[in-house]
Amino acid sequence: MKYISKIFSIFFISTCFFLFLLSCGNCKEDKIKLFYEIYYGPFKIGESEINITSQKYTAIVYSVGLARWIFPFYAKWETWVDEKGYPQKVIIYSKERNKERRRLIYFQEKENKIIYQKILPERGEPEIIFLEFPIYDELSSFIASFYIEYYKSPKIELPLFIKKSKEYIKIEFREKNFCEFKKEKKECLRIKVYLPKKSELLERSSEVEIWLLKNEKLPVELRGKLPILGSLVGKLRKIEKF
Description:
Blueprint: H1 2-21, E1 32-40, E2 43-52, E3 56-63, H2 65-70, E4 73-81, E5 87-96, E6 99-108, E7 113-120, E8 127-130, H3 138-144, E9 155-162, E10 165-181, E11 184-195, E12 206-213, E13 219-226, E14 230-241
């Protein structure tokens, strides 16, 4: 069961990465909802819903079908941001069968202070952590990554707050090629993401590969590399704008 847990954890944090790809100037003025299907080989094992507004980013992933019966899983990541896209408040929640986890994080830039508190499984005392700002949570860092000009800066690192310390996510542009979207060949960019070993949801460093439509800046496919078991694939199925 621990490997099944890693499968959904990898897709959850990878799903968060999708949001940065949609945070263009026009998108941030709209409310956008994306729907992804998650596959392990030929089997559909989960779904993901993504919401983005100018003030808040949300990523949700959950198991479906037979996978839900074998290993019920639900996770939700919420990040409230300021006008520059830096985190102000974060709530991370996950449930595996009857095991629930919830974390609450406040970012106070003026004091270079972060308040971190465990809510579940047992409420803990708030911890005060001093780190150099600016700093992102994992979700808001992915949003900021949109502004990378990949042809000029093919490699970049961004500072993250992870497990009470400052770590870095590495992002690399690998190639321009063609990918399939709605049964058509489109020009795409292949982006490689290396997650820190201290990721909130992963026990080990993991690699994520994103296929991004060159013109639309829209992620159509994600592949998460899982040790031993291989790759998990997320495919975009529907977009709603309102």
